[in-house]
Design brief:
The structure is a single chain. By secondary structure, the protein is of the alpha/beta class. It folds into two domains: 7-58, no CATH class; 62-261, 3-Layer(aba) Sandwich (Aminopeptidase). The chain is 41% helix and 24% strand. The chain is built from nine helices and 14 strands. Strands 10-7-11-14-12-13 form a six-stranded mixed beta sheet, sandwiched between helices. It has a two-stranded antiparallel ribbon with strand order 1-2. A two-stranded antiparallel ribbon has the order 3-4. It is elongated. The model is unreliable at 19-26 (pLDDT under 50). The chain binds zinc ion. Zinc ion is lined by residues 93-94, 100, 108, 161.
Length: 265
């Protein structure tokens, strides 16, 4: 699915643009693979710039712009175009003074953010628009998180956390939760659980109704919460701290979201 823009397209484009600039005094024309376009160009200090979005879309690519990281994601194909219609909110749990669980000096808020950012990158590469409820170590109320999702007309809301067990010092694995009033939330939670378990090769800690969780109760769209592993179990805390394992969990979260959006749940 992921492909680079073929170099010949860029080369053809640059040659066409250069020729037009050289031959025209009144403005700039953009010719794309031999065809005139209405794409605007801007000249500043002797440099001519063409909007990336216009060029990419004219070539049939889907463009997702991420303001947080100032990254433009270009994807090709009908599937990326279909996925670009969706906005997914990823919600790294806690943040700021609310650190969540803390074991061996590791804060849950930091693990949640790191995993969420990796999942966002995977989804954006596939063409999905992702909104993060926080991109740094900032305080954010539970209601502000679902408010943001509503304002951005999000299609899905996924909250990302790490777990703790005071009863079982050996607890390991993936757990997901949904609100009992939402059949879609249940389907999303179940899809996420299977996808994260598969990608991370993690044990199953189940999927559960959680009427008590505010982010699930107040989300206006299908919502689920993923507990990525148990910080209270030293072996799993070590895994959760590793870049490689975080990437696998993140891939699982992205896989689950994509499966749900594609209707393969
Ligand atoms: Zn948490």
């Amino acid at each position: 699915m992921r492909r680079l823009i073929p170099l010949f397209l860029l080369t053809a484009l640059l040659l066409a643009l250069t020729a037009q600039v050289a031959g025209s005094r009144a403005g700039v024309s953009v010719v794309l693979n031999g065809q005139d376009t209405a794409i605007p160009a801007y000249t500043e200090d002797g440099r001519t710039m063409v909007p990336l979005r216009d060029i990419a879309e004219a070539l049939g690519f889907t463009v997702v712009w991420d303001e947080d990281t100032r990254t433009a994601y270009l994807s090709d194909g009908a599937e990326a175009a279909a996925l670009s219609a969706y906005t997914v909110v990823l919600d790294p749990g806690h943040g700021g003074s609310a650190t969540g669980a803390e074991y061996q000096g590791v804060r849950e808020s930091a693990l949640n953010l790191s995993i969420a950012q990796k999942a966002a990158a995977v989804l954006r590469r596939e063409g999905v628009a992702v909104v993060m409820t926080r991109t740094g170590d900032s305080d954010l109320s539970l209601y502000a998180r679902t408010d943001l999702a509503r304002r951005r007309s999000a299609d899905l809301f996924v909250s990302i956390h790490c777990n703790v067990s005071t009863a079982n010092p050996d607890a390991m694995g993936v757990y997901t939760a949904y609100h009992p009033d939402s059949a879609e939330g249940r389907a999303l939670a179940d899809t996420l659980r299977g996808a994260v378990m598969a990608a991370a090769d993690a044990p199953d800690m189940g999927v559960e109704e959680r009427p008590d969780l505010a982010v699930l109760r107040t989300a206006a769209m299908p919502a689920a919460l993923v507990e990525c592993g148990f910080m209270s179990t030293p072996a799993e805390l070590a895994l959760l701290c590793s870049e490689d394992y975080q990437q696998r969990i993140a891939q699982g979260i992205a896989d689950g979201v994509l499966t749900y959006l594609r209707g393969e749940k």
